[in-house]
Write a structure and sequence with these properties.
It is a single chain. The protein is mainly beta. The protein has 2 helices and 24 strands. Strand 21 and strand 22 form a beta hairpin. The longest helix is centred in the N-terminal third of the chain and has 23 residues, at about 5-30. The radius of gyration is 25 Å and the shape is elongated.
């Protein structure tokens, strides 16, 4: 077995070493050179955490970063806690801490319980979501066509590079905002030489951004051959053709593999069937709304469903993911990824409740 230790691995080991050194210093700093005969070593150290706002839809909190802690141990008279470089001393074991790093991040909390010079130590790892400022959104609250200040249309057929079967229109039959939801309707019908119609809307030349977090709450269509996608393309695509421009697929789903959610990145040498990505199996993708998210920075691109991480991609300056991108929402039929079409298919709808961008 061969190990290739890269710079990121060395940095991680250095951070781990420093944390362990700090933990040892933390443990030793409150005790003397020896134990008092009357000191009783604490036992049964328990660390309880409550991430404020945590629920089924937001398991990592409400974005405030606030976490309530309760630590306890038998025979303990005081506690010392290490969170990053912050040291907290408490005699009650009850305290709170606000994490400030934006995004969804893992933190290891080190705790020591003391009785005089005697102590025991333990640790716990938690995942906390911290929101940032909303930079752009569409709540889809105005009935009618999508907001023309934010969205335009790709129109036509021809397979779109994937042998897809639909003809994209801007008709209200195929795309409409209704009841607070954007609806993209995929319909089986003859239209301009195609057997299916749908819609593909995009923010190109109207809204583009570089880095941040994207949350899209959506309910997906069912039916063999359906292929909804919530994704982004590099804004320089006209002068830097795909895949050189880069593509970030926040969510893709195919009706022939229900409830399997894909997060994918296309770039030179890694496009089409050779793209980088991951997937996760969820429940009720076509009957309930879920939040599909992407956290994009100069170092990583992370994909989530309902705030649960399922794939992390390591970004770097040599990749095309360090410039503005624009959104595309569409629902295709068949094609290289959508696959065989159910002969009994008549229609299905991609519903989007909102799209939020945070910086």
């Amino acid at each position: 077995m061969k190990y290739n230790l890269q710079l990121k691995d060395i940095c991680f080991l250095n951070r781990l070493f420093l944390a362990l050194v700090a933990f040892l210093i933390l443990g030793c700093s409150s005790g003397g050179s020896g134990s008092n005969d009357n000191d009783t070593k604490p036992t049964n150290l328990v660390i309880n955490t409550e991430i404020v706002g945590s629920n089924t839809s937001n398991p990592n909190g409400n974005g405030s970063g606030l976490v309530n802690f309760t630590v306890s141990a038998n025979n303990a008279t005081s506690y010392r806690i290490l969170i990053g470089t912050d040291v907290i001393n408490t005699t009650t074991g009850v305290f709170n801490y606000t994490f400030t790093q934006s995004g969804t991040n893992n933190y290891t909390i080190y705790v020591s319980a003391y009785n005089g010079a005697e102590f025991i130590s333990s640790s716990v790892t938690i995942t906390v979501f911290v929101t940032t400022t909303m930079a752009w959104s569409d709540e889809f609250n105005t009935d009618g066509p999508p907001d023309s200040s934010k969205w335009s249309y790709d129109l036509g057929a021809g397979g779109w590079g994937n042998n897809e079967l639909q003809y994209y229109t801007n008709r209200p039959e195929n795309v409409i905002v209704q009841g607070g939801v954007l609806k993209i309707n995929l319909i089986k019908e003859p239209f301009n030489g195609s057997n299916y119609t749908s819609a593909r809307i995009l923010t190109k030349n109207k809204y583009e951004f570089k880095y941040g977090r994207v949350d899209i709450r959506a309910k997906l269509p069912a039916g063999g051959g359906t292929w909804p996608a919530l994704w982004m393309l590099g804004s320089d695509i006209n002068t830097n053709p795909w895949p050189a421009c880069g593509e970030i697929d926040i969510m893709e789903h195919i009706g022939n593999n229900l409830n399997r959610i894909y997060g994918t990145l296309h770039h030179p040498g890694h496009s089409g069937g050779n793209a980088d990505g991951g997937n996760v199996l969820i429940n009720n993708a076509t009957t309930e709304f879920h939040i599909y998210s992407c956290e994009w920075s100069a170092s990583t691109i992370k994909f989530y469903v309902d705030n649960v991480l399922f794939y992390t991609f390591n970004n770097n300056s040599g990749l095309p993911f360090n410039k503005p991108f624009f959104f595309i929402f569409n629902c295709a039929m068949g094609g290289n990824f959508g696959g065989a079409v159910d002969p009994n298919f008549t229609s299905a709808t991609l519903e989007v409740d909102y799209v939020h961008v945070y910086h």
